Amino acid sequence: MIVVDGARELLHGGTPFDRTTYRYTPLLAVLVIPAVLVANPLGKVVFTLSDLGAAYYCFHMLLRFSTERSAKWMVVILILFNPVVLNVSTRGNSDMLISFMSMGVLAKFAEGRYFTAAAILGFAVHFKIYPIIYALPLVLGVWERAKQECFFGRLAHTAPVVVGCGLCFTVAFAVPTYVCYLVYGQQYLDEAFIYHIHREDHRHNFSPYWLLMYLNMGRRDLGVGVDYSAGLFAFLPQFAVLCYASWKLRKNIAHACCVETILFVAFNKVCTVQYFVWFLPFLAFVFCEPAQPKRLMGATNVSKSERPSMLSAVAVILMWSLTIPLWVWTAYRLEFEGQNHYGRLWIVSCVFYLATVGLAAWLGRLCYRSRITIAIKDHRPAFKRA
């Protein structure tokens, strides 16, 4: 496990970055020091506990607008006994730790504790960059909460909260980042942040960009002047679709975060299996069974919120899931058997990309039509119908 090796280097008087391919915050290495001092499995236990934390926050969020039975099933299927989550956490990967923090952000936001949510988000971004995508849905969520009808009235209500959240986010991100920089210098920034911006992985990468990365690697080796790399331009379509999804789904932050995360994974230059655990917990907010209107707002004669049928949900998830073994089988023949399947693997990567975007589009349409919107007030859950 890379993180445990980094902790071992740390205890031996070196830095976590002395371990090749350690490209995380040094705090992760500190977190798994018991795995070096006591027993190696303790590192995996730390990350597995993140599953329980994410399940805890997800369950309590679901109780606000779904039936208890549905909340339990969603948490069991998508987090606690999900094979992808179990595999990622028990092999010593820290991605569920970030999902745990993301669920914490949603939970605190639902309680109306915006500053706490912003602080958790800032700390999560210190661990991994990608949770920054949740900042826009949270800001739009605060905007939607404002009762004023006119633009300037809403702006006057929202601006102080957003500025305060921005300060909390900045402090929670900057303090640990600056401390790590003081200890490890520029190497920390290069490995933990800058590397991920220019990252080029042509192996084990579901994204269609892998072929451009492979060609670019060959260009550098041969000294050819043509640059095939997408570079920073790859972030432009990603940024555009994230902004669009945030705006269209601004009335329900959980839905916005779910669709945003799937789109982020689909449009990212690098996509591996552990990225799937970023959005799996969020799916619970889409597929849960809404509570009865009386429970939500004490009203009658309210139409039911649109939910997907079991058949359609299974069909969509199955069609997306089938692209994964198809990709793995094709990649195995290329990477392990050495067969010339570069073109075939790129086509399968495009199929996976289209399937993931299709999944996000289907979920986005479903969420947009949902009539349940979360309106937080006075730290108590209240709900309204659009």
From TrEMBL:
**Which GO biological process categories is it annotated with?**
GPI anchor biosynthetic process
What membrane topology term does the record carry?
Answer: Multi-pass membrane protein
- Can the keyword Lyase be found in this entry's annotation? no
The cellular component terms of Gene Ontology attached to this UniProt record, alphabetical and capped at eight, are: endoplasmic reticulum membrane; glycosylphosphatidylinositol-mannosyltransferase I complex
- Pathway info: Glycolipid biosynthesis; glycosylphosphatidylinositol-anchor biosynthesis
Pfam (any one):
Mannosyl_trans
Give compartment(s): Endoplasmic reticulum membrane
Please describe what this protein does. Catalytic subunit of the glycosylphosphatidylinositol-mannosyltransferase I complex which catalyzes the transfer of the first mannose, via an alpha-1,4 bond from a dolichol-phosphate-mannose (Dol-P-Man) to the glucosaminyl acyl phosphatidylinositol (GlcN-(acyl)PI) intermediate to generate alpha-D-Man-(1->4)-alpha-D-GlcN-(1->6)-(1-radyl,2-acyl-sn-glycero-3-phospho)-2-acyl-inositol and participates in the sixth step of the glycosylphosphatidylinositol-anchor biosynthesis.
Q: Which PANTHER family match?
A: GPI MANNOSYLTRANSFERASE 1 (PTHR12886:SF0), PIG-M MANNOSYLTRANSFERASE (PTHR12886)
Similarity comment: family membership: Belongs to the PIGM family.
- Give the protein name, as stated in the record: GPI mannosyltransferase 1
Q: Which organism is it from?
A: Leishmania donovani
- Lineage, highest ranks first: Eukaryota, Discoba, Euglenozoa, Kinetoplastea, Metakinetoplastina
